[in-house]
Amino acid sequence: xxxxxxxxxxxxxxxxxxxxxxxxxxxxxxxxxxxxxxxxxxxxxxxxxxxxxxxxxxxxxxxxxxxxxxxxxxxxxxxxxxxxxxxxxxxxxxxxxxxxxxxxxxxxxxxxxxxxxxxxxxxxxxxxxxxxxxxxxxxxxxxxxxxxxxxxxxxxxxxxxxxxxxxxxxxxxxxxxxxxxxxxxxxxxxxxxxxxxxxxxxxxxxxxxxxxxxxxxxxxxxxxxxxxxxxxxxxxxxxxxxxxxxxxxxxxxxxxxxxxxxxxxxxxxxxxxxxxxxxxxxxxxxxxxxxxxxxxxxxxxxxxxxxxxxxxxxxxxxxxxxxxxxxxxxxxxxxxxxxxxxxxxxxxxxxxxxxxxxxxxxxxxxxxxxxxxxxxxxxxxxxxxxxxxxxxxxxxxxxxxxxxxxxxxxxxxxxxxxxxxxxxxxxxxxxxxxxxxxxxxxxxxxxxxxxxxxxxxxxxxxxxxxxxxxxxxxxxxxxxxxxxxxxxxxxxxxxxxx
Length: 498
Prior knowledge:
Shape: globular
Largest sheet: 7 strands, parallel
Distance between the termini: 63 Å
Strand order of the largest sheet: 19-20-18-17-21-22-23
Structural class: alpha/beta
Radius of gyration: 23 Å
Number of domains: 3
């Protein structure tokens, strides 16, 4: 008989319900039989030992907050009796754990597109990117016209990604927009890019060009609408040249070391830190062990678990970068008068997550357990060091996935306990944390990590998911967001608008 609860660490004060528990239902725990004092929903926490008011409550072997009242064995532990212990700032000491893992050279490859600048794409697409939001509809119509004309003729499609910015932006906000769009221009999944501007915006084409590397300019065409009499005729003419460039590209075997895997969670539940996130972490470790790159973001969802990542830094210099990353994001919230612990979301809480510490300790597991943190990547900048990188971006699904793509992720592993149809500009594989979600939303979900709770091996499922990643990267399979045509971007914004 499958266990009904799971204690994640011997020191934990709570166990996670692997199925709904009725009030009065007795369950076997590592500390003896405990009777639930109230109904415990799937993924929620059951107290298995007494915790006094004000004392820390432990899960994953770490405190996830403090008891807001005395908690007795068998009680449901949630927002009514558990509160965060996070503060606005902290001090950190580098306590390195682990050492570089040996590179595994087993010859594992995928079929990718090697670009002229040495990057490798997993799709051969044409992207249309606009410098300003007021030309969204022109870009959208051009993409539809070009896609209907050329899809399947040596290219995987023509895509446009709408956004509202680039016009009345100043300072850092204009820099964020340019950085994100420049990251997409250089992305290897796009064989070529058409950049469309209006002509009077702050983010004019001539200033945006300065953000692009010379190697990117070779595969980019520009169209300024205020200087053309017929934007559709001129746009299609430019696109025809870009398509011809893309048609010369062919898939070829490429080592897995050339993969950059983005890691993201959205709509987490109480099982996310038990099934989907550690499963994705194992895949990330497998990619990094072969010389590849894993990109972890959602900095505010590292709060409360940041020391786990800091102690995995490969050097004191990287440790200092992580400290700066965490403090800068905490300062961002306090600068706007918002508490750093204003998280989890209502959906997270419904799924069993109570505090930000609990959410973060589950979320960072997407970064695996074996890989050292080798670098911190600024928003919109490319990841250049193989290994586990931390990317500066918020927790918002659309903003963070866009940032991962801009930093070079060719595909995203997106874990979810609540479900979402969202897809980024690159293949976005949705990994369900629980089996009911995978069963109820087959049109959204690419992989069912809830099978772990049903008794399947984490290690075997990690191997299975890795092979799926290889097939998607090779173009043998499409992610569900690609099948559905769901591709979006969102750009980080902080300051004022004119």
